[in-house]
Amino acid sequence: MKILLTHFLNLMIFFVTLSRTIQSQSLPGCPDKCGNVTIPYPFGTEKGCYLSELYYVNCSKLQVHNTSFKLLDISLDGHMHGSLPMAQRCYPQKAKEYRDPKIWLSRFPISSSENFLTTVGCDARANMKALYSEDHYITGCLSMTGCNMLRDGLCLGMGCSQAPVPYNVTSFRIHTERNTNGTVGKWGFNKCTYGFLVKKGQYTFQVTDFDNMQNRTFPVVFEWSVGNTSCEEARKDSENYVCGENSVCIDTLTEFNQSYPGYRCQCADGYNGNPYIKNGCQDVNECERPDLNECVYGCTNTKGSYECSCFWGQQGDGKKTGTGCKYSGGTIFAGVSMGIGTSGMLTLILYWGLRQRQIMKSREMFFKKNGGLILQKLLFESKQSSRTAKIFSARVLEKATNNFHKSNIVGQGGYGTVYKGTLPDETMVAIKKSKSIDANQIEQFINEVIILSEISHPNVVKLLGCCLETQTPLLVYEFITNKTVFQHLHEQNFISSLTFEKRLSIATQTAKALSFIHTTTQIVHRDIKTSNILLTDDYTAKVSDFGISRFIPVDETHLQTLVHGTLGYIDPEYFRSGILTEKSDVYSFGMVLVELLTGRKVYSHDGTESDLGLAMFFVSSLERGCLIQVLDDKVKNDGLDEHVKKLAKLAKDCVELEGKKRPNMKEVKEELDELCHSYVKSSIVSDKVKNFDSDQLIVFDW
């Protein structure tokens, strides 16, 4: 009876929660939008809607009162984004080509941890100066004099330089000029110098910026707070203290920044909303979301938290990560002896039935949400294909992995976790559990499942099917037993396993897989790397993990998309532009070739790559005739001179910065095929790399 009453109360709480009105981020009766920008209190757009005039937002100009930046967004964590004008000076100097903007930020300083002062141009400098003092410098940065060997990329001093911003800067002017008198404005150099503030990671230098920086803007992060005292002092003035119910106060003064008095408000744990308005922090019902509670069985929401309950006769805190729910032998015996065992059993059966029904409804909901109906329709239409994907039930995969026990984890990454499992027919499988999937891309995901399941290639890990009855879809692949190429190259137990012949074979098989995928499915993998190339017991390469792959329509040559992938392997052209092409996979494959040749990780911390990254370090060594110095010992000992040269040249072609200069995967495959056959025929040739003198260099005729 007690447990039925608990269920009834939970049901009532659920309906009350559904009927609760979601409160606005602004004060009652006040607009909370300027166009697409949300304006939360203490900010406001009308009199009576903001805390004080300092927080007034002019909607027509998208400007906070008495500031110089254009507002982009405001978040309740004490940050807002805006854009500032850029400083510019051109030579020979003309009045209209000279601009040193003066900046006022009221009480909203530049975030010192989130922004950089940036200068663009050779022999250029940018300074932040006090508004009314020519000699008072706040900070500055300068670039090198020479314009030789400019490369697109990070601002490291050549053509572009960056410097951090000090704490609590609220008024200044941005000034830019050339360092010397003999360069800027002359032939072979940039005509202008530029200075601007930008959020970290939001600007990547391009050589063409010298000619098209005018009128560009970049996002800048500003900090905001309320009051002018600490939390402790503010609480004493209850009339002006602005943190509402169920919130906590956070001081803006820190160990590193003692010059920015004030405080911020934040909803307490278990609450969500705007802490600056009355009743703005509302209780979160953790029982409605399985990811927010740890209950094994019953869950009861409380203010700011929740409580877990066990069946009658059980003991424990009812939490998965706690003591759980366990039966006490004495209690059961006493219960049976008192004649209530039957009642308890009936209650248990009733609860189990309700629980199973809830699980079934949840799985049915996830199945529909994850596109199960679409996939069923597509599978029916293509049922004549023997390779069509199979839809697995959640129950089967839970049993296959012992409820996804951590002992069955065989891999983890930024996009999810991979479990080893055994199906009822004793088939070994790998089950990928993604962290999340965009609800807007479900149909695209389903189409890719169909396409990938129909790929039948000896060097591609076979997708057997998927499960759509869970919060995020599960993908089921064939299980490959002999680890990854990355492990064989870099882990101590495997390092000696890869001869040059095996490395050449792995490269050739991987190229065949990518060429097949590009030409038959129009899929771009987007994450080719040695840890995504699996090996069978006989060292057959299998390309895996199509979790972030994208389908490019037949009539298109590229796709505009958010940048995804692994640093070091990502195509620099795709990283800058967001334009994905098949040549993006070619660059990543080129990095795999470099890794196979050198035995080095794409990024290492031993300083050997001079902060250039493995690609530039390898190409630079090649161009200086120093290839022998960067080759892996196994390549030196086993590889034949001409074959090593050709493979290195192919790797260099694949990692060209411009995609149009790279070969396509079909051309790469053909060249590797020829190289592989040639190596087998010439394996007895005595002119091996290992016979080179220690000071002998491999020199290429380009």
Features:
Jelly Rolls; kinase; EGF-like_Ca-bd_dom; disordered N terminus; EGF; disulfide bond; disordered C terminus; 702 residues; signal; five-stranded antiparallel β-sheet; six-stranded mixed β-sheet; alpha+beta; flat; Phosphorylase Kinase, domain 1
Describe it.
- This is EGF-like domain-containing protein.
- It catalyses: L-seryl-[protein] + ATP = O-phospho-L-seryl-[protein] + ADP + H(+); L-threonyl-[protein] + ATP = O-phospho-L-threonyl-[protein] + ADP + H(+).
- The chain crosses the membrane at residues 332-354.
- The protein is α+β, with helices and mostly antiparallel strands and 702 residues long.
- It folds into 4 domains: 2-12 and 289-365, no CATH class; 79-223, Jelly Rolls (Sandwich), CATH 2.60.120; 370-479, 2-Layer Sandwich (Phosphorylase Kinase, domain 1); 482-702, Orthogonal Bundle (Transferase(Phosphotransferase), domain 1), CATH 1.10.510.
- The protein is built from 17 helices and 36 strands.
- Strand 27 (416-422) and strand 28 form a beta hairpin.
- Helix 10 runs antiparallel to helix 12 and helix 10 (500-521) runs antiparallel to helix 17 (665-681).
- The protein is flat, with a radius of gyration of 32 Å.
- The N and C termini lie far apart (86 Å).
- The model is unreliable at 1-22, 607-611 and 686-702 (pLDDT under 50).
Shape designation: flat
CATH architecture of the largest domain: Orthogonal Bundle
Strand content: 15-25%
The amount of helix comes to 25-40%
For the biggest sheet, the summary is: 6 strands, mixed
Counted up, domains total 4
What's the average pLDDT? 82
- Regions with pLDDT < 50 over 5+ consecutive residues? 1-22, 607-611, 686-702
Q: Structural class per helix/strand content?
A: alpha+beta
By DSSP, the count of extended strands is 36
CATH topology grouping of the largest domain: Transferase(Phosphotransferase), domain 1
CATH class of the largest domain, anyone? Answer: Mainly Alpha
With strands numbered from the N-terminus, the spatial order across the biggest sheet is 25-29-30-28-27-26
Radius of gyration: 32 Å
Distance between the termini: 86 Å
Question: CATH H level of the largest domain: which superfamily?
Answer: Transferase(Phosphotransferase) domain 1
- The DSSP helix count reads 17
